[in-house]
Amino acid sequence: MSWSKIRAKLRAARDIYEGIFIAPYRAEIYREYLRQRDLFFLLGFADLIGVPNPVGFYTLELYPELIEQFHEWHLRLGMEHAPDGGFRCC
Amino acid sequence: MTVDRLLERRLLFFGGKGGVGKTTLAVAVAQYAAERGEKTLLVSTDPAHSTGDMLEISLGAEPTEVIPNLTVLEIDPTAEADRYIRDVKERIAESTPPRLVQEVERQIDIARLTPGAEESALFDRFTTLIEVEGSRYDRLIFDTAPLGHTLRLLGLPEHMHAWMSALIGRRKKVNALNRMWQRVAGTEDHAERRSDRVLEALEERSARFARVRTVLTDAKRTAFVFVLIPERLPILETEKAATALAAHGIPIGAVVINRIIPDSAEGAFIERRREREREYMERIERDLGAYPLLRVRLQETDVVGREALHHLIAGLH
Fold it and tell me: B89 CA to chain A: closest CA distance, Å?
């Protein structure tokens, strides 16, 4: 058996392993990541939705990064366009 | 208790109810320190400034040297908020994609108009003054706004630090999950672990708040001086404020009792006032006697000019 065949079999074995043990959780991990990111967004920019935020003035520098996440967020929530009052990202 | 004992601390705050003589005392002590040869910075944090009026000069938002060794600064919350907004825009300019610049700037301009903006800007200036500009002077003296406002300002490092810590904790969790996700998705970038600019900005600010809080609560470096007059309302307010400051851990250096009726004053009207004053003096000694007390007599004329300020310091007992 050549090396390339051995490598192909090893790769297949790894794919099977991943398919059984990791893939079912992959989506869950991603969802949790998004949940935590939204929560961070809420804590840092609560004033955007009308909730007073004592540190709002000190998180202004984070706008450029968060404005892009905001776009992704409203798409994820099924809103084709940005809701009123927030960033006008599209 | 003498002024010299008080001046063992590098950072002094003068506070009290409106109209009790905070500015007069702060300017007198600042002038005294400057004449001892210490490079002194006197800062007014009261939005309704009277420090310049006291010195009979017009002061701007930039530090002005009024006599040798004495520099005075009146913080203007409106100008500070504008300056802060300008700084933020400059800092983000290079890292923002061009298509987003306009929207980001629009959002920042909206934030400028929110209710807490000027307070936040004033606080930001206050922390940099203590940390950065303060290090260029031998002594910093703050002539503060009436008590409610000042208690809030001095309590902010604690509150802000708590909020920032919570944000930082969240951000770290987000980053950890992001790494985990990239690992299972097989998109992990080993070559370059990107630094998190957001986290860095948050941590930098949080660390500054923590350092300022350390300075404010250090009795070797900082003292808050209450100024009051022997009347009912200033006493009540000072008692409440002393409790609040103690809760924040800010050391109280002295209580100055201003405008005490001099022994030489006479007349039936003055006698009546003096009787009430005696009761109030007893109350001050009972309730605030735990702190060093300093007394200043009521002067015949307004305290204006360097000579009058010398006279005031000389008469402290």
Answer: 8
Contacts of B84 (CB under 8 A, 6+ apart): A57, B120, B121, B124
pTM metric for this prediction: 0.83
Chain B: which residues have CB within 8 Å of chain A? 84-85, 88, 91-92, 95-97, 100, 103-104, 106-108, 111, 114, 116-117, 120-121, 124, 159-160, 163-164, 166-167, 170-171, 173-174, 177-178, 180-181, 184-185, 197-198, 201-202, 205
**Residue numbers of chain B with a pLDDT score lower than 50:** 191-192
Widest distance between CA atoms in chain B: 92
Of chain A, the percentage scoring pLDDT greater than 90 comes to 12
- Quick one: CA dihedral B51, B55, B58, B61, positive or negative? negative
At residue B181, the 3 state secondary structure works out as helix
| Residue A84: how many other CB atoms lie within 10 Å | 6
Residue of B nearest to A62 (CA): B198
Residues of A in contact with B185 (CB under 8 A): 26, 30
The more confident residue out of A83 and B43 is B43
DSSP state at residue B9: S
pLDDT, average across residues A31-36: 91
Amino acid at B262: P
- For the stretch B32-71, what's the b/e string if a residue is b when 16 or more beta carbons lie within 10 angstroms of its beta carbon? bbbbeebebbbbbbbeebebbebbeeebeeebbebeebbb
- Whether B42 and B137 have beta carbons less than 8 Å apart is answered as no
DSSP letters spanning B95-128: TS-HHHHHHHHHHHHHHHTSTTHHHHHHHHHHHH
Answer yes or no: is pLDDT of A90 > 80.
no
Residue A86 in this model has a pLDDT that exceeds 70: no
pLDDT band at residue A85 using 50, 70 and 90 as cut-offs:
low
